[in-house]
Automatic annotation (TrEMBL):
Keywords: Signal. Residues 1-17 form the signal peptide. Residues 69-331 form the AB hydrolase-1 domain. It comes from Adineta steineri. It comes from the Eukaryota. Pfam families: Abhydrolase_6. The keyword Signal applies. InterPro entries: AB_hydrolase_1, AB_hydrolase_fold. This is AB hydrolase-1 domain-containing protein.
Length: 350
């Protein structure tokens, strides 16, 4: 019961502790989730969203929307972290520092947090992409503030980036996408780091945090033994121990369906199908052990990332490395350096 209250407090904290200039409204939207084996069969589910904007701003169809997509075992609070907000809040930073020209639509992906939790096998990379493509249609058709927004940028982290690639590369999904910011994921992973992530997961029902979240079977999370999240997702020399502790206390789940569909979604053929008129910013933490290692898999500089990724896209991409950061670039002491890059890149292109 205590852990339920911790999670509810984090949600309340998000709604009340954002900067006074930034306003957020929570809204559930209805989506259809396809069956893995029979995609023509769908179930009706609910997707939790938070629409955030700068108070007093006159919004219009040209206002830029950053649609933020969190990663595996996280929820929407990755983008608006409940500890020392707004220092770690991407939502607050880009809204305030764009002088209101950017709004953020933050979500709990399907299967996570306040969103519906379908059978694990039906929560895949593609079903996530399908659901978010439905959401982009809602955004474009005026579901938020009765405004038909035309500049939608997908901002993904980790699995959220893999989902972003799938949306942007699929003609039936990408109709309203104008750009993508892809963080925490590259085409070639570090096999040692990847093996450590796979070895770290166990059934969500066995975990002291996620067992309180009433998730179906075959939902998984990270095992807290041996400080798993700290070792996998952080460069601890550049992170606040209280952030790491809060991360563990507010963690969420992933599904077996997502794990089983990583393989096809990571192929370069996916990103090579992203239209050349959709600009891409790729961002990595310098010491992200899931994707980076010395020499061949180096993430030390933006040039390293460009060299590793450029052949997987039709046109040139922009790149940025957050120095001294691990995988969770939003949760390191210098996170605002990459927020600034995302903001400037957006204003340059749109």
């Amino acid at each position: 019961m205590l852990l339920i209250w911790i999670y509810l407090f984090s949600i309340f904290h998000l709604c009340t502790s954002v900067d006074s200039d930034v306003q957020c409204e929570q809204k559930n939207v209805t989506v259809q989730v396809p069956n893995l084996l029979l995609p023509s069969i769908t179930t009706t589910e609910s997707l939790a969203t938070w629409f955030c904007w700068k108070e007093g701003t006159q919004l219009n169809t040209n206002t830029i929307v950053h649609l933020t997509i969190h990663g595996y075992t996280y929820d929407h609070t990755y983008w608006a972290f409940p500890y020392q907000s707004p220092e770690y809040s991407y939502v607050d930073y880009v809204i305030k520092n764009s002088n209101g020209s950017i709004v953020v639509l933050n979500i709990d992906r399907i299967g996570i947090g306040l969103s519906s939790k379908p059978d694990a096998i039906d929560v895949t990379v593609d079903s996530n992409a399908n659901v978010i493509s439905q959401l982009t249609t809602y955004i474009h058709n005026g579901a938020y503030k009765d405004i038909q927004f035309t500049n939608i940028i997908l901002v993904g982290h980790s699995l959220g980036t893999l989902i972003t690639w799938t949306i942007a590369s699929t003609p039936s999904y990408n109709q309203y996408i104008r750009g993508i910011i892809a963080t925490g994921w590259l085409h070639v992973p570090n096999p040692v780091g990847t093996a450590a992530v796979i070895a770290s997961v166990y059934p969500a029902q066995l975990d002291p945090v996620t067992s309180q979240q009433s998730v179906p079977l075959l939902y998984v999370t990270t095992n807290p033994a041996n400080n798993t999240r700290q070792n996998l997702f952080y460069n601890i020399s550049n992170a606040d121990p209280n952030v790491i502790q809060t991360d563990e206390q507010t963690k969420h789940t992933g599904t077996i369906g997502e794990v089983l569909t990583f393989g096809l979604a990571i192929l370069p053929t996916v990103t090579l199908s992203i239209p050349s008129n959709i600009p891409v910013l790729a961002v990595m933490g310098q010491y992200d052990i899931v994707f980076c290692a010395p020499l061949v898999l180096s993430c030390d500089t933006s040039s390293n990332i460009a060299l590793r990724e450029s052949s997987s896209y039709l046109s040139a991409i922009d790149t940025f490395v957050l120095p001294n950061s691990g995988h969770d670039i939003n949760l390191h002491l210098n996170s605002q350096d990459w927020y600034e890059k995302a903001l400037n890149w957006t204003l340059q292109h749109f």
